[in-house]
Specification:
alpha/beta
Length: 234
């Protein structure tokens, strides 16, 4: 496959099915933890390093669990983690948190999720983070008054019915789902500038956007948006 054909979500590794995004997650995690980019099988076994994933891809999550004291979590199944309502017992426990293409699905207000992910981290912990984002001025919230809502499947499409906190009924059509129709609803499209503001408000002030190519590990970004990043409190 030619470099120009590589897309963010193109599964181009015939043996493992990884995409450029999932390969970048491991590249960044290795760089942040060990100071160099290692392929996942070459990670040392370090059970003293504690990590948590948010709906991570099995292709790397299963091996991370063998390398570290790491647990993958989910919103709808066990082991569960609702990033808008975290267990206080989890605060300050993790050397790393992986959140890859999750925050665009979190119900508003999304600022709570940014604050809580900081709470999960140790003082020197690192967040490995991706979301689709644009270079426009602000985040586009598709359902800014979401409160009591349900997604209803009709004969031809899905619609969202919402009742706001003020009791106003709303109906939304032309929903965007990730992972297939009716699966994971896109709540918003972030902008890069609004992401920076969210991190700043959450006191996650040390941020690095990984925009450089790493051809040895099959990573080449032909765009300047929706790039992966590492984020720390200090």
């Amino acid at each position: 496959m030619k470099v120009a054909e590589l897309g963010r979500e193109t599964a181009f590794c015939k043996s493992c099915g990884s995409t450029m995004r999932t390969r970048a997650i491991i590249h960044i995690l290795s760089t942040e933890l060990f100071g160099e980019s290692l392929i996942l099988p070459d990670f040392p076994v370090r059970t003293d390093i504690t990590g948590i994933g948010m709906s991570d891809w099995d292709g790397y999550a299963l091996m991370l669990a063998r390398k570290f004291n790491y647990k993958n979590t989910f919103y709808h199944q066990e082991p569960k983690l609702n990033i808008t309502h975290i267990d206080p017992a989890l605060e300050g426990r993790f050397d790393f948190v992986i959140s890859s293409d999750v925050f665009e699905h979190v119900c508003p207000p999304v600022s709570v999720a940014f604050e809580n992910v900081r709470k999960l981290l140790k003082p020197d912990g690192v967040l490995i983070f991706t979301v689709p984002y644009s270079k426009e001025k602000g985040t586009v919230e598709h359902f800014p008054e979401s409160h009591d809502y349900q997604i209803i499947e009709t004969d031809e499409r899905h619609i969202l019915k919402n009742t706001t906190k003020g009791g106003v009924s709303q109906v939304f059509e032309n929903l965007v789902f990730h992972g297939g129709d009716g699966l994971t609803l896109e709540m918003r499209l972030f902008s890069e500038s609004s992401l920076m503001e969210e991190f700043h408000r959450a006191k996650l002030n040390k941020l690095k956007i990984y925009k450089d190519s790493d051809f040895d590990h099959g990573i080449h970004w032909g765009v300047d948006w929706s790039l992966p990043m590492s984020v720390k409190a200090s």
